[in-house]
């Protein structure tokens, strides 16, 4: 049918543009790399209780 609406694509989590199936869920390789860089630099953190330093627990601090 010619009047069927196109399925909506999710927005890129980095810039908000429509995602590209080749880079899903991102819109481009650039946004994929930006997201990876954020993970590697500690920009994303999973909430939880503080983790004790193993050296402090052994009295080596």
From TrEMBL:
Its cofactor is Zn(2+). Binds 1 zinc ion. InterPro entries: DNA_gyrase_inhibitor_YacG, Znf_NHR/GATA. It holds the Pfam family YacG. Keywords: Metal-binding, Zinc. Coiled coil: none annotated. GO terms for biological process: regulation of DNA-templated transcription. Zn(2+) binds at residues 12, 15, 27, 31. GO terms for molecular function: DNA topoisomerase type II (double strand cut, ATP-hydrolyzing) inhibitor activity; zinc ion binding. Inhibits all the catalytic activities of DNA gyrase by preventing its interaction with DNA. Acts by binding directly to the C-terminal domain of GyrB, which probably disrupts DNA binding by the gyrase. HAMAP family: DNA_gyrase_inhibitor_YacG. Belongs to the DNA gyrase inhibitor YacG family. Interacts with GyrB. NCBIfam families: PRK01343.1 (NF002362). This is DNA gyrase inhibitor YacG. It comes from Teichococcus rhizosphaerae. The gene is yacG.
């Amino acid at each position: 049918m010619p009047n069927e609406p196109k399925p909506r694509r999710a927005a890129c989590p980095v810039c908000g543009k429509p995602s590209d199936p080749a880079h899903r869920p991102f819109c481009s390789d650039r946004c994929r790399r930006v997201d990876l860089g954020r993970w590697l630099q500690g920009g994303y953190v999973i909430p939880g209780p503080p983790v004790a330093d193993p050296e402090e627990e052994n009295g080596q601090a």
